[in-house]
Amino acid sequence: MAPGQKLIGLDVGEKTIGVAVSDGLLTSATPRETLRRGRFTEDAAHLRALVGAENAAAFVIGHPLNMDGSDSPRAQAARAFGRNLTVATGLPVVLWDERLSTAAVERTMLDADLSRRRRAEVVDKLAASWILQGLLDHLRNLKDRD
């Protein structure tokens, strides 16, 4: 990655895609938006435009494994989405374990006393941010070891 480039985090669901973007220093993730899923070509075009606007170098997609680490149908769907996104955008995709991300985000929103309606509006982009932040923290820990 070139200095200042960002990562885009995605929480890919059946109906929506939560989107988050890192800062240029790769230290923090910010929830950006929740896309209502449509045709893949439309979703990919929207994400391509975001790549250009944010100077992004790669995508980080939540990989929803089962709690025991085994594969799930949703994990297979996430991998397929990632493969197609790489073809559509030319950017690499990193799959990041997202187990418990939605539960953690839900707990945080409940602690913040958000209404059920407000939680439904923001859960996907917050989950994308949680996923992306997990990878950013991992990268920082690897750098600190060197």
Any overview of this molecule?
The protein is of the alpha/beta class and 146 residues long. It has a single domain, classed as YqgF/RNase H-like domain (Nucleotidyltransferase, domain 5, 2-Layer Sandwich). It is built from four helices and five strands, in the order βββαβαβαα. The chain has helices at residues 40-54, 73-89, 101-111, 116-145; strands at 6-12, 16-22, 29-36, 56-63, 93-97. The chain has a five-stranded mixed β-sheet, with helices on both faces. The mean pLDDT is 90.
Brief description of this entry?
The chain has 146 residues and is α/β, with parallel strands linked by helices.
Write out the strand line-up for the largest beta sheet, numbering strands in chain order.
3-2-1-4-5
Order of helices and strands: EEEHEHEHH
Structural class: alpha/beta
**CA radius of gyration:** 15 Å
Proper CATH architecture: 2-Layer Sandwich
Question: What are the segments in which pLDDT stays under 50 over at least 5 consecutive residues?
Answer: none
Individual helix count: 4
Mean pLDDT: 90
Into which percentage range does the β-strand content fall?
Answer: 15-25%
Give the end-to-end Cα distance, rounded to a whole number of Å: 18 Å
CATH superfamily: YqgF/RNase H-like domain
